Amino acid sequence: MNKLKSLCVYCGSNFNGDPMLKQAIVALAETMVSQDITLVYGGGSVGVMGVIADEVMKLGGTVTGVIPQFLMDKEVGHKGITQMIITENMHQRKQKMADLSDGFVILPGGFGTLEEFFEVLTWLQLGLHAKPIGVLNVGGFYDPLFAQMDVMVQHRFLKQTNRDLVFNEADPEILVEKMQCFSATPDEVWFRDRNLT
Q1: What is the 3-state secondary structure (H, E, C) of the chain?
Q2: How far apart are CA 162 and CA 185, in angstroms?
Q3: Which residues are CB-neighbours of 54 under 8 A, at least 6 positions away?
Q4: Which backbone phi and psi does 182 adopt, to 5 degrees?
Q5: CA-CA distances (angstroms) from residue 132 to 3, 6, 36?
Q6: What global pTM score does this model have?
Q7: Which candidate among 67, 120, 150, 194 keeps its CA 20 to 30 Å from the CA of 74?
Q8: Where are the membrane-spanning stretches (predicted)?
Q9: What distances in angstroms separate CA 55 from CA 51, 108, 154, 171, 193, one per listed residue?
Q10: What is the Cα–Cα distance from 1 to 150, expressed in whole angstroms?
C-alpha cells in the first residue's frame, strides 16, 4: 500500500461541544499534518466539519473542501481553506471526495455521516476500491453500531471477513497508522454462490 497522501473525513455538520471529541479532532489534525496528509471533507464551516478544517489549517496543513452549489448558496461553505470544489449535487460531491482520497475516516455525526460511511464500506466490499476505512470511535460513540454489525454477522447477513474490513480505534494516531498498513481482502464468496462471476 502506498503512503496515504489524503484522507476523506466524514463527520457531522453539528458539534455538541464535547471536549473529548474536540481533543480527538485536534489529535487527528496533528497526526494528519505531521504526516503531510491532506484533509478532504464536505467543505462546511459549521459543526465537526468546521472544527476539523480549522484545526488542520491552524497547523499549516492542506484542506480541500467539496460542497454542492445549493449548500454554498446557504453560506455554510468554509471561506478559509486551501481549496474549495463546488459540485452540482450531493452525488457528485460524494464521488469527488472519494476520488480525491486515499482513505476514509469517520468521526461522530448523524444520518449523512452514516450514509457516507456505509457507501464507501459497501464499495470496498464489492471491490470497487481498495482504500482503508477507519472509524474514530470517540468515547464509544460507535460501539452500538459495531454491535449491530456483529448481529449482522451472527444472522449471516454479513461475513466476518467483510465486517473486519473497517478499523475501530479511539486514538487517531493508532487509527492512521493501521490505515497506512491496510491491504484489502474482501470475501467475494457471495458473488460465486450466486454465479455472478
Answers
A1: CCCCCEEEEECCCCCCCCHHHHHHHHHHHHHHHHCCCEEEECCECCHHHHHHHHHHHHCCCCEEEEEEHHHHHCCCECCCCCEEEEECCHHHHHHHHHHHCCCEEECCCCHHHHHHHHHHHHHHHCCCCCCCEEEECHHHCCHHHHHHHHHHHHCCCCCHHHHCCEEEECCHHHHHHHHHCCCCCCCCHHHHHCCCC
A2: 8
A3: 80
A4: -70, 140
A5: 11, 11, 17
A6: 0.92
A7: 120
A8: none
A9: 6, 16, 40, 17, 47
A10: 28
CB count in 10 Å sphere of residue 184 = 14
Give yes or no for a contact between 121 and 168, defined as CB atoms under 8 angstroms apart: no
pLDDT of residue 191: 54
For residue 38, what is its C-alpha cell? Answer: 491532506
Instruction: Give the model's pLDDT for residue 196.
Output: 47
How many angstroms separate the Cα of 149 from the Cα of each of 72, 139, 152, 160, 165? 35, 18, 5, 9, 12
Q: Write b or e for each residue in 87-115: b if 16 or more Cβ atoms lie within 10 A of its Cβ, otherwise e.
A: beebeebbebbbebbbbbbbbbbeeebee
Q: Please choose, from the candidates 145, 135, 179, 173, the residue with its C-alpha nearest in 3D space to the C-alpha of residue 5.
A: 179
Cα–Cα distance measured from residue 190 to residue 126, given in angstroms and rounded to the nearest whole number:
10
Residues of the chain with pLDDT under 70: 1-2, 186-197
